[in-house]
Design a protein that fits this description.
Radius of gyration: 22 Å
Number of domains: 2
Distance between the termini: 42 Å
Mean pLDDT: 86
Helix content: 25-40%
CATH topology of the largest domain: Rossmann fold
Shape: globular
Number of strands: 15
Structural class: alpha/beta
Length: 362
């Protein structure tokens, strides 16, 4: 192996920017191994985000770059999802690497649908994913997944419940522990205790990400969950109206007060797509997500349309994953949302490491 040849390869790689990380693989530490023999190069790359459907394009881009300089290459890419740091005073979960809160300042913005489809998209990219429906008073997961409310989960031993598994996704909701027709009439402490018990007594199995579909608003349940659960980061779902933006501001402020990084904002129902002609119209206005991004220095993870296909699939308990051919465009949007969220979390961990001071002993 020639040192100068390897230096050349590393120099070339430092000029190529990963389109998702927005960093090169040298600076971001993704290059794990670089073997050069003559004009043949073999690379081992570990990416900090799930990338199953992206690998082909990434490999071709790097191979084309090296080929322009007379080098043939074999590029091996795999994702390595790291465990996030746990806030001081909280214990991490042994079988869950990262907990992501999906929240909104108000109800009716499509938070639950967005959370579930983001979970499916992460799973489709190769991550191990679970989702906990934390909306005590109006659990949505039974309807959205097609698993009837009141269906009882199995048991693992005497103290743990087995999550339902659908398309590889691990699921748990209070809707499967109560009767569909019986309202939950609990005060805050009872509801919060039930949720923490659901989280800790579900037998989650080796998850890269556990998404928590938070109850709407910033009341006692949401605040207590944010304080007592080792959440790695939060995603805030809003719609384009100013009213929804004002409520989303409250959610962002809540997470900031409990030292949970906001990974980004999702603008749901951004545009209406006519089912007859395909015309796009911003019927709920526009600009709210951009204002949030400017005011709080958070990224816009994705703008999702108001599309009748999403509503119809949700009412039938079907994910766009099950209708991949007819909803390929929607799947692409959820894929982008999921990967950008994972990248934002990885970048947040990198920033946390950079903020740790060096201790010098004299």
């Amino acid at each position: 192996m020639s040192d100068s040849a390897e230096d050349t390869v590393r120099r070339l790689l430092s000029t190529w920017i990963d389109p998702w990380l927005e960093l090169d693989w040298i600076q971001s530490g993704c290059l794990q191994q670089c073997d050069v023999k003559g004009t043949e190069v073999e690379l081992e790359i570990h990416l900090p985000y799930p990338c199953a459907t992206l690998v082909g394009d990434l490999v071709r881009a790097v191979q084309d770059l090296l080929e322009e300089h007379g080098l043939s290459s074999r590029v091996h890419i795999q994702s390595r999802i790291s465990r996030s740091r746990v806030r001081s005073g909280l214990a991490g979960m042994e079988t869950v690497r990262n907990i992501i809160a999906v929240a909104s300042g108000k109800g009716g913005v499509g938070k639950s649908t967005t959370a579930l489809e983001m979970a499916y998209a992460l799973q489709r990219e190769g991550a191990r994913v679970g989702i906990l429906d934390a909306d005590i008073y109006g659990p949505s997961l039974p309807l959205l997944t097609g698993i009837p409310a009141g269906t009882r989960p199995g048991m693992h031993g005497d103290k743990e419940m087995l999550p339902f598994v659908q398309h590889g996704l691990q699921l748990m909701s209070l809707g499967w522990l109560t009767d569909e027709q019986t309202p939950v009439i609990w005060r805050g402490p009872m509801a919060t205790g039930a949720l923490i018990q659901m989280l800790s007594q579900t037998h989650w199995q080796d998850l890269d990400y556990l998404l928590i579909d938070m109850p709407p608003g910033t009341g006692d349940i949401a605040l207590t969950l944010a304080q007592k659960i080792p959440v790695s980061g939060a995603v805030v779902v809003s719609t384009p109206q100013d009213l929804a933006r004002i409520d989303a501001v409250r959610a962002i402020e809540m997470f900031r007060k409990v030292d949970i990084p906001v990974l980004g904002v999702v603008e749901n129902m951004s545009v209406h797509i006519c089912s007859q002609c395909g015309h796009h119209e911003s019927i709920f206005g526009e600009g709210a997500a951009d204002q949030l991004a400017r005011d709080y220095q958070v990224g816009i993870l994705e703008r999702l349309p108001l599309d009748g296909r999403i509503r119809a699939a949700a009412d039938k308990g079907m994910s766009p994953v099950q209708q991949a051919k007819s909803m390929a465009d929607i799947l692409g949007l959820y894929r982008n949302l999921a990967v950008r969220m994972a990248v934002a979390l990885a970048r947040q961990e990198q920033l946390s490491e950079q903020r740790i001071p060096n201790l010098v002993m004299n």
